[in-house]
Amino acid sequence: MERAIRRSIPFDQSELLERRRRWREFWRRFSRNRLAVVGLILVSLMFFTGIFAPWLAPYSYTEQNLDAVEQMPSLAHPLGTDELGRDQLSRIIWGARTAVIVAPSATFVGVALGLLMGALAGYFGGLVEAVIMRLAD
Fold first, then answer.
1. What is the rounded CA–CA span in Å between residue 43 and residue 53?
2. What proportion of the chain, given as a percentage, has pLDDT over 70?
3. What is the pTM of this model?
Protein backbone atom coordinates (compact mmCIF):
# COMPACT_ATOMS: atom_id res chain seq x y z
CA MET A 1 0.00 0.00 0.00
CA GLU A 2 2.80 2.40 0.88
CA ARG A 3 4.51 1.84 -2.47
CA ALA A 4 1.30 2.60 -4.31
CA ILE A 5 0.93 5.89 -2.49
CA ARG A 6 4.54 6.88 -3.10
CA ARG A 7 4.31 6.13 -6.80
CA SER A 8 1.04 8.00 -7.23
CA ILE A 9 2.48 11.30 -5.98
CA PRO A 10 4.64 12.91 -8.66
CA PHE A 11 7.89 14.36 -7.35
CA ASP A 12 9.23 17.41 -9.09
CA GLN A 13 12.98 17.39 -8.54
CA SER A 14 13.46 20.71 -10.29
CA GLU A 15 11.78 22.48 -7.36
CA LEU A 16 14.22 20.85 -4.94
CA LEU A 17 17.18 21.80 -7.12
CA GLU A 18 15.92 25.39 -7.37
CA ARG A 19 15.62 25.58 -3.59
CA ARG A 20 19.18 24.28 -3.16
CA ARG A 21 20.45 26.76 -5.73
CA ARG A 22 18.82 29.64 -3.87
CA TRP A 23 20.41 28.55 -0.55
CA ARG A 24 23.83 28.25 -2.19
CA GLU A 25 23.43 31.71 -3.68
CA PHE A 26 22.36 33.12 -0.30
CA TRP A 27 25.37 31.61 1.51
CA ARG A 28 27.74 32.75 -1.21
CA ARG A 29 26.52 36.35 -0.91
CA PHE A 30 26.35 36.19 2.87
CA SER A 31 29.89 34.86 3.24
CA ARG A 32 31.23 37.75 1.13
CA ASN A 33 29.91 40.29 3.63
CA ARG A 34 32.51 40.28 6.42
CA LEU A 35 30.42 42.34 8.80
CA ALA A 36 27.49 39.92 8.48
CA VAL A 37 29.77 36.94 9.13
CA VAL A 38 31.29 38.61 12.21
CA GLY A 39 27.79 39.44 13.47
CA LEU A 40 26.64 35.85 12.95
CA ILE A 41 29.69 34.55 14.83
CA LEU A 42 29.12 36.96 17.75
CA VAL A 43 25.41 36.17 18.04
CA SER A 44 26.12 32.43 17.79
CA LEU A 45 28.82 32.73 20.45
CA MET A 46 26.45 34.60 22.75
CA PHE A 47 23.70 32.00 22.33
CA PHE A 48 26.21 29.15 22.81
CA THR A 49 27.58 30.82 25.95
CA GLY A 50 24.11 31.46 27.33
CA ILE A 51 22.89 27.94 26.73
CA PHE A 52 25.97 26.24 28.19
CA ALA A 53 26.62 28.75 31.02
CA PRO A 54 26.46 26.18 33.84
CA TRP A 55 29.30 24.22 32.24
CA LEU A 56 31.37 27.16 30.97
CA ALA A 57 31.41 29.43 34.02
CA PRO A 58 34.36 28.70 36.32
CA TYR A 59 32.48 29.91 39.43
CA SER A 60 28.89 30.47 40.51
CA TYR A 61 27.71 33.97 39.63
CA THR A 62 26.51 34.49 43.22
CA GLU A 63 29.49 32.96 45.02
CA GLN A 64 31.18 35.57 47.20
CA ASN A 65 34.82 35.35 48.22
CA LEU A 66 35.62 38.19 50.61
CA ASP A 67 39.31 37.24 50.47
CA ALA A 68 39.34 38.12 46.76
CA VAL A 69 37.59 41.52 46.79
CA GLU A 70 38.26 43.77 43.76
CA GLN A 71 41.19 41.73 42.48
CA MET A 72 42.86 42.55 39.21
CA PRO A 73 42.68 39.97 36.40
CA SER A 74 44.66 36.82 37.16
CA LEU A 75 44.73 33.15 36.17
CA ALA A 76 42.18 32.34 38.87
CA HIS A 77 39.88 35.21 37.81
CA PRO A 78 40.58 36.17 34.16
CA LEU A 79 38.47 39.35 34.36
CA GLY A 80 39.04 40.03 38.05
CA THR A 81 36.49 40.24 40.83
CA ASP A 82 33.97 42.83 41.99
CA GLU A 83 33.50 44.53 45.37
CA LEU A 84 32.00 41.36 46.86
CA GLY A 85 34.66 39.01 45.47
CA ARG A 86 32.42 37.57 42.75
CA ASP A 87 34.14 36.41 39.55
CA GLN A 88 33.41 38.87 36.72
CA LEU A 89 33.79 36.28 33.92
CA SER A 90 31.21 34.00 35.54
CA ARG A 91 28.80 36.90 35.93
CA ILE A 92 29.19 37.86 32.25
CA ILE A 93 28.64 34.26 31.13
CA TRP A 94 25.50 33.94 33.27
CA GLY A 95 24.34 37.34 32.00
CA ALA A 96 24.44 35.95 28.47
CA ARG A 97 22.05 33.24 29.64
CA THR A 98 19.59 35.93 30.74
CA ALA A 99 19.89 37.66 27.37
CA VAL A 100 19.25 34.37 25.54
CA ILE A 101 16.00 33.98 27.49
CA VAL A 102 14.83 37.61 27.38
CA ALA A 103 15.52 38.39 23.69
CA PRO A 104 13.27 35.70 22.15
CA SER A 105 10.60 36.34 24.80
CA ALA A 106 10.51 40.07 24.06
CA THR A 107 10.43 39.37 20.34
CA PHE A 108 7.51 36.97 20.77
CA VAL A 109 5.54 39.47 22.87
CA GLY A 110 6.19 42.26 20.34
CA VAL A 111 5.10 40.11 17.41
CA ALA A 112 1.98 38.92 19.26
CA LEU A 113 0.94 42.46 20.20
CA GLY A 114 1.65 43.76 16.71
CA LEU A 115 -0.37 40.95 15.17
CA LEU A 116 -3.28 41.60 17.50
CA MET A 117 -3.25 45.37 16.94
CA GLY A 118 -2.93 44.95 13.18
CA ALA A 119 -5.81 42.48 13.11
CA LEU A 120 -8.00 44.82 15.16
CA ALA A 121 -7.14 47.78 12.93
CA GLY A 122 -7.83 45.77 9.80
CA TYR A 123 -11.10 44.31 11.07
CA PHE A 124 -12.68 47.44 12.52
CA GLY A 125 -11.07 50.12 10.33
CA GLY A 126 -12.12 53.75 10.57
CA LEU A 127 -11.58 55.42 13.94
CA VAL A 128 -10.13 52.28 15.58
CA GLU A 129 -7.57 51.99 12.80
CA ALA A 130 -6.64 55.67 13.12
CA VAL A 131 -6.21 55.42 16.91
CA ILE A 132 -4.08 52.27 16.64
CA MET A 133 -2.02 53.91 13.91
CA ARG A 134 -1.35 56.95 16.11
CA LEU A 135 -0.45 54.73 19.08
CA ALA A 136 2.00 52.83 16.90
CA ASP A 137 3.54 56.08 15.67
1. 15
2. 92
3. 0.65
